[in-house]
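Incident review: delayed structure delivery

Summary: a single-chain prediction request sat in the queue longer than the usual turnaround. Root cause was a stuck worker, restarted by the on-call engineer. No data loss occurred. The affected request and its eventual output are reproduced below so the record is complete for anyone auditing the incident later.

Affected input:
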Amino acid sequence: MTTVRLPLFPLNTVLFPGLVLPLNVFEERYRAMMRELLKTPEDEPRQFAVVAIRDGHEVAPSAPGLPDPTAVPERGPAAGFGADPLRAFHKVGCVADAATIRERPDGTFEVLATGTTRVRLLSVDASGPFLTAELEPLEEDPGEEAEPLAEGVLRAFRQYQKRLAGARERSLTSDAELPDEPSVVSYLVAAAMMLDTPTRQRLLQAPDTASRLRDELKLLRTETAIIRSLPSLPASELTRTPTSLN
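Output delivered after worker restart:
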């Protein structure tokens, strides 16, 4: 089994291959990670792994709070993730390739990364200034009937978009902008739908592209039916996703 070791960036969101991830990095553990990544030559990939948090906090408490106002805040790379960080994270994540890492005058960083490949989390090391992880790359198996499923998902996705945008508004994405490669379709739709983290995680770790597309087709039909039954939706607000604090 081939494994890789990369810096680990836990987030309260799921990153999919091919999707862009903007980050505002201000915690010291992640600033240390970015400083280390900047040591990588510019002609080599500056990679880290993103995993969704199952149990814990993306940003560690920096001051005493409830229920004990005198409690000392946690420090260190695993702060907020308990005694065993491996248990705090979902086991399938995504490698991120940082195209831009820009340090601000105050020492924080502006980062723009893109998801590349899925990985399975095998172990977490908290002995350094930031978390690192041993990871197993996951191949993308197309599964059976991926192409016709992708066509059905795209049709359902267009209907979903129209319902979100409203009958009198332009579709959120024109037909020309939509891909046709099944795995790309599956990840784009997973990222574009308004879903909670557990559902996004389920889609990320689907055993193959066809299984992901089948799940998305059910979700799209269900969500479109729900939206149709509502008298009004503030679509412009629903389709905005905030940038992660980190």
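Verification: Strands lie at 4-11, 20-25, 47-52, 92-103, 109-125, 132-137.
Action items: add queue-age alerting; document worker restart procedure.
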